[in-house]
Design brief:
The chain is mainly α and 126 residues long. Helices cover 75% and strands 0% of the residues.
Length: 126
């Protein structure tokens, strides 16, 4: 019983780093939402917290090494396109090219991170 580790899921260090960096992005988004909650419309807050909840759920799935983690991560990354389009519509941030540049940069770094973790995620998907 002294050797029992209930929630010890072995993870590659590259996958851990990927999840930690993604988690930092969600901390930043959550902080942005909490900081501006009095000035943002309700629709913007709902959209923001849905994005945070989906992202944290996806990261939890990756940390648990579920077989469908890669598919969910790719779905999360693909869902960022309509979310960045919808964010200015509901008033989460002003419409500008900066949002799209940020999305492109974030997506590029995420895909590079997934590529670096490809062996671990590929084993999970098979």
């Amino acid at each position: 019983m002294s050797l029992f580790r209930k929630f010890e899921v072995p993870l590659d260090s590259r996958q851990q780093l990927y999840v930690v960096l993604q988690f930092c992005a969600y901390i930043a988004l959550g902080s942005y939402l909490m900081n501006l909650e009095r000035s943002l419309p309700t629709a913007a807050l709902v959209l923001g917290w849905i994005v945070v909840a989906l992202g944290l759920f996806t990261l939890g799935v990756a940390l648990e090494s579920r077989s469908w983690a890669l598919k969910l991560e790719l779905l999360r990354l693909a869902s960022n396109v309509p979310l960045v389009w919808l964010a200015p519509v509901v008033g989460l941030w002003p419409a500008s090219a900066l949002g799209w540049i940020g999305l492109l940069s974030y997506s590029l770094f995420s895909v590079i991170g997934l590529y670096c973790c490809r062996n671990r995620f590929t084993r999970l998907a098979s």
